[in-house]
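Reopening this one. Same input as before:
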Amino acid sequence: MPVGDRRDPYGSHNFLVEIDGIVRGGFRECSGLDTSQDPIDYREGTDPPTMRRLHGLVKYTNVTLKWGMTDDTELWDWRLKAMEGKVERKNGSIVLLDDTGAEKLRWNFHAGWPSRWSGPTFNATGNEVAVETLEIVHEGIVRA
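Same output, byte for byte:
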């Protein structure tokens, strides 16, 4: 293949996360861009002696965000509202950037809310950044 036609893959280190109404700095890690669909085995008495494989419900994995802890409490406040029974559903996007910072791909989730928050692990002999984790459950994700 000629060098001019070469298409290198994008690095997974250039990304940003957008959530309705929440303006936040960068994230260390973002995962959970998964969908799955379990098959349903089905057979009627007049069918051949094999199972039919029907499509079942589509499932989405929670989006998990990790970031270095700062004084910013926007995401914690969102989680706190959910714990108080005041769930605020928000739409959001995970955006893949190229090396120049230009947007290349986008995954949009809808009706998300924070279902889990984890604080940092502390170790008096460690030399790591304190990291927070937030899981966002949602009702669908699409590649835009």
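So the earlier flakiness isn't reproducible anymore. For the record, The mean pLDDT is 93.
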